[in-house]
């Protein structure tokens, strides 16, 4: 049975999983969840994810959610297929993938998520972006990216000289950020900028980015 | 060579890793990092973790940080030793451990961390706890725990009928929460309360909790 991904292409967390599925060259069916109709808060979807958030993945009789858990499951189950996202044959490199995957989750995400919310979600809710929230979080994000800048002077990617899940997890939020004036936080840091240009032009993500039109007409 | 953990027993993230090391019955050396002297922001520690946060783990010539990456590395490298925290022999159960580990990280942690900060860290910095921040986040935490309550009616632990890394990761923050008036958010939910009493009385955590005296004289 094919994998079934429940989500929406414009969603950051769905596109994180889509990028992983493409890197692994997997066949899957994308089942659209209509966020504007609140389908993710209705019982059929809540049975897949009680938190009412997309995406969710069905693999035969297993249903899982949380985008980073899904990518980790997919990368591990299909470790011999497509691109190796976890360096599963080298325990030290695999450990560094885990470290920088957690850095995305605990350091990068909490700073970038409120910025993307203000630029893209607030206007859909009829509010102007709150510049104080944007500035406060841009300062936090800048500090995180200062550390990335230093790291990327010694290795080509975050976990080492290999593209991995750790880099991939950054793509969706950074993609939206780069469409805003806050893109300067990336562009002002030469190694971060080069890293971004490298990872965002991989064929797997370019395919996903075509569907990422959050907040656009 | 023995594992070396750099941290402080009162720190939530250090105690998360300590609990994992005890569950795995591993020998290790705890190297104390003096937070009050700012040792974690000095070059020797920054060489281990550029974000200047404890803990960091040295395993021979490998140095890693981020508590959840460390527990995942330890649980996987030593999968045949001590208690099986990842259900590594069953890909479906292992996937559910990943899911609920991410739930802790993305849903539980962002709600509980500001509460613990207000109760324990703010007073050390000479500030009174901000009741608005506490109340706002207690409401968020309550919604997360409503979902835990429903889940724990059907399985004994979060990922299934087995204790795992997903449960373990909750211990340090919940331990401090239970010392505050906000403990009611757990105690009012009978299945969450029973789960908490079960996981917090495991010998591995009881040993760690003895050193968790954050903010106490």
From TrEMBL, chains A, B:
Residues 1-82 form the GST N-terminal domain. Coiled coil: none annotated. Pfam families: GST_C, GST_N. GO terms for molecular function: glutathione binding; glutathione transferase activity. PANTHER family: GLUTATHIONE S-TRANSFERASE F13, GLUTATHIONE S-TRANSFERASE RHO. Belongs to the GST superfamily. Phi family. Keywords: Cytoplasm, Detoxification, Transferase. This is glutathione transferase. The keyword Cytoplasm applies. Its EC number is 2.5.1.18. It comes from Salix dunnii. GO terms for biological process: glutathione metabolic process; toxin catabolic process. The keyword GTP-binding does not apply. One of its GO terms (cellular component) is cytosol. It comes from the Eukaryota. Residues 90-217 form the GST C-terminal domain. It catalyses: RX + glutathione = an S-substituted glutathione + a halide anion + H(+). Its main location: cytoplasm. It is found in: Cytoplasm, Cytosol.
């Amino acid at each position: 049975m094919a994998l079934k991904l429940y989500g929406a292409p414009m969603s950051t967390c769905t596109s994180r999983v889509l990028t992983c599925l493409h890197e692994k060259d997997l066949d899957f069916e994308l089942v659209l969840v209509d966020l504007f109709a609140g389908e993710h808060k209705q019982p059929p979807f809540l049975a897949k994810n009680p938190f009412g958030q997309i995406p969710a993945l069905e693999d035969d009789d297993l249903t899982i959610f949380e985008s980073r858990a899904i990518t980790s499951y997919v990368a591990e189950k299909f470790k011999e297929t497509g691109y190796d996202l976890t360096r599963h044959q080298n325990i030290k490199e695999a450990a560094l993938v885990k470290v920088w995957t957690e850095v995305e989750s605990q350091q990068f995400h909490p700073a970038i998520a409120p910025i993307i919310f203000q630029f893209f979600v607030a206007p859909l809710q009829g509010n102007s972006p709150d510049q104080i929230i944007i500035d406060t979080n841009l300062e936090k994000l800048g500090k995180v990216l200062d550390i990335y800048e230093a790291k990327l002077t010694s290795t080509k990617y975050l976990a080492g000289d290999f593209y991995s899940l750790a880099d991939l997890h950054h793509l969706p939020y950074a993609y939206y950020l780069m469409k805003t004036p806050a893109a300067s936080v990336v562009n002002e840091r030469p190694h971060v900028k080069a890293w971004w240009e490298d990872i965002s032009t991989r064929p797997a993500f370019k395919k996903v980015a075509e569907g990422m039109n959050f907040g656009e007409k």
